[in-house]
Structures are given as structure tokens and as C-alpha cells.
């Protein structure tokens, strides 16, 4: 899901209008990846309890800023890094229960 968010961001910045975004191939790839992500999530829910699997969705809040910093040259300030660390700690604690 994180990669699809990067593609959507990059694709939307390449198009100046909503109409041009509609014809941007990266947007369509990202939407396809979101669809695949939904199917994989359904598959995970077949075998895992929702209360166990759901906290792992919070890893998107970790993955997306890190990928955006690497591939889109976005800045991550200290406060955001602390927040990302807290999210990681919460996911670890949830996974241990």
C-alpha cells in the first residue's frame, strides 16, 4: 500500500488538472495496487483475528513517510520521527499480546 501511495503522489503531481490525472498511467498502476492490497488484506483476515491484524495497518504511517523521504525527497522532521517510533512501539506491543 505504501508504494501505491507514492505512485499516486508522483502521478498526481505530473498532471495539472483532474482530467490529466485521470489519464496518468501511474495513477492506474497505484489503483491496481490498492485493489491487490485489498485482496491480500481479505486473505490475511481469513487466518488472523482482526484485533491482531489491524494494528499492522499502522505500519503504513511508518512506511509511507520513509519511502517519501527516500524517493520523493520529502523532509521528515524530528517530531515526525518520534511519532513514527511511537507507532512502531505500539505495533510491537500489540503483536506481543
How would you characterize the overall build of this protein?
The protein has about 100 residues and is mainly α. The chain is built from 6 helices and no strands. The protein has helices at about 1-15, 20, 25-45, 50-55, 60-70, 80-95. Helix 1 (about 1-15) runs antiparallel to helix 3 and helix 1 packs across helix 5 (about 60-70). The mean pLDDT is about 90.
Key terms for this structure?
97 residues; mainly alpha; 0% strand
Secondary-structure topology with pairs:
Blueprint: H1 2-14, H2 18-22, H3 25-47, H4 50-53, H5 60-71, H6 78-96
Helix pairs in contact: 1-3, 1-5
| Average pLDDT score | 88
What share of the residues lie within helices? over 70%
- Largest sheet descriptor: none
* Helix-strand string: HHHHHH
Question: What is the C-alpha radius of gyration, as a whole number of Å?
Answer: 16 Å
Shape field? flat
Could you name the ranges where pLDDT drops below 50 across 5 or more consecutive residues? Answer: none
What class do helices, strands and sheet pairing give? mainly alpha
Count of β-strands: 0
